[in-house]
Amino acid sequence: QLLLQESGPGLVKPSETLSLTCTVSDDSLNRNNYYWGWIRQPPGKGLEWIGSLYYTGTTYSNPSLSSRVTMSVDTSKNHFSLHLRSVSAADTAVYYCARQSVTTIFGLLRRGWFDAWGQGTVVTVSS
Amino acid sequence: EIVMTQSPATLSVSPGERATLSCRASQSVSNNLAWYQQKPGQPPRLLIYGASTRATGIPARFSGSGSGIEFTLTISSLQSEDFAVYFCQHYNNWPPETFGQGTKVEIK
Question: Would the CB atoms of B95 and A61 count as touching at under 8 Å?
Fold first, then answer.
């Protein structure tokens, strides 16, 4: 069974950079049939997709966050990372990493649903 | 950005009864829709993808239907473990993939 585990600091100061890593329990990061995503959930609220990346290093991010988001993958270490710059209290949330399926839409390979999730890590932005 | 609107926000149902949850997209997403279940303190769990295909290990009492802009998740006979929050997510035109705001299914 695939396991994903988020790691990183639980407290980040305003204006600094939030950095998280997701470690995957097998070598599926090397495979071309999945994307790998980050999703967050502010306290008591819904889910917001942050971005996803492919094993080649190609990244896609939410336009509302793209100016502050950087993602990377290290297949040799079975992990991928998220960096969110210039954080504020509005970035306080549970951050999840997840595996995202590859699906076919109109004959083209596209990102799909999230079929495996980490347990999530709480990140608080506060001075 | 496609906006996903779920209704109702809260659904009160007795164990053994049927629950019907709705998700509406602001524009057509074809059948590119997934449903998730989330319990307190846990990550979401994939229930349905392709609007109607159950994910691995999901009981048959969960079923999804719809296409275009209107979708439904039906739980045929609610069990105690089904009381949770349910989210829909489209993956048609992106970025971004967007989620609905959730429907909480509570015990009546």
Answer: yes
- Provide the 3-class DSSP secondary structure of residue A117: strand
Residues of A within 8 A of B96 (CB-CB) are 49, 62-64
Exposed e or buried b for every residue in B65-75, given b needs 16+ CB within 10 A?
ebeebebbbeb
Q: Yes or no: say if A14 and A84 are a contact pair by the CB < 8 Å rule.
A: no
Q: Rounded distance, CA B85 to CA B36, Å?
A: 8
Residue A27: pLDDT band with limits 50, 70, 90 = confident
Closest chain B CA to residue A108? B92
Sequence-ordered list of residues with C-beta below 8 angstroms from that of A32, at least 6 positions apart, any chain? A54, A55, A102
Per-residue tokens: A6: 């988020």
Among the residue ranges A28-32, A96-100, B31-35, the one predicted with the least confidence is A28-32
Q: Test B46 with A113 for CB contact under 8 angstroms.
A: yes
Q: How close B78 comes to chain A (CA, Å)?
A: 23
CB crowding B19-57: b at 16 or more within 10 Å, else e: bebbbbbeeebbbbbbbbbbeeeebbbbbbbbbbebbee
